[in-house]
Amino acid sequence: MREKITLSGVVLSARPVGEYDRRLVILTKERGRITAFAHGARRSGNALMAVSNPFVFAEFTLYEGRDAYSLISAVTADYFTDLAAMLPGVFYGYYFLEMADYFGREGVEAAEEVNLIYVTLKAVMRGELPLPLVRAVFEIRMLSINGEYAPPEENGRYGMAAYSLLIHACSGPLTRLYAFAASKEAQAEFEKAASEAVRVRTDRRFKSLAVIEKIE
Fold it and tell me: From CA 53, how far away is CA 191, in angstroms rounded?
């Protein structure tokens, strides 16, 4: 008999399979990115329906198979249901999940990435910072976590305020990652640096990012 395992994480994507099932990609703290099938999740009244959606943070109980997992149940920590009604915030949310999926690896712990997504979505919900600035902080931190970016040792071509933002985005505590103030000039320079870093250090055109750029 297969043993159950419990993993903590966030649903990055959910796609229909067959008549009633869903195929989930979940980024977990313990095992990185995994694929899990939620059998019956599209059937009305099924207990897995609510937890088989993007932006759901939960403790997932699963059976481990050869190539994928089977979702048994989940204890939800946060649904972020209000995000769906926030435009353009929801598109930023999907971009964050898409980037996490790009960098996620099976068997590689991803606790910091999961926590980064959580605090970033919270920042979007609070609305205290402009969304392009939230996006830039997320981009730099995600690149930094995955060894794809480090700020220069000196500010060089950056103004000191923008350079300070780069340092903060790379190494500031997650609990305070979006607690700062900056001038519009520093924000614009920082956002440009983040966009350039993503363009240089990734080889994918993110679909959700294209949507954001179209509506901005």
Answer: 30
Environment class of 7 (CB within 10 Å of its CB; exposed 0-12, middle 13-18, buried 19+): buried
Residue located via tokens 């993503």: 198
According to DSSP H, which parts of 28-175 are helical?
89-103, 111-126, 131-145, 160-171
Parallel, antiparallel, or unpaired for β 32-38 and 21-28? antiparallel
Gap between the Cα atoms of 151 and 142, Å rounded: 13
Distance, CA of 159 to CA of 156 (rounded, Å): 8
Q: What's 34's domain CATH number?
A: 2.40.50.140
Give yes or no: residues 102 and 207 share one domain.
Answer: yes
The reply to whether 16 and 73 lie within a common domain is yes
Closest CA to 27 of 42, 11, 50: 11
Residues 129 and 209 in one domain: yes
Residue 110 DSSP one-character state: -
Regarding whether 167 and 63 lie in a shared domain, the answer is: no
- Domain check: are 42 and 105 in the same one? no
CATH of the domain at 165: 1.20.1440.120
Q: Please tell me the total number of residues recorded for the chain in this structure.
A: 216
Tell me the β-bridge partners of 76: 58
The type of residue at 198 is V
Q: How many domains does the chain have?
A: 2
**What digits encode the pLDDT tens for the residues 102-161?**
999 999 999 999 999 999 999 999 999 999 999 999 999 999 999 999 999 888 899 999
Entry pTM: 0.96
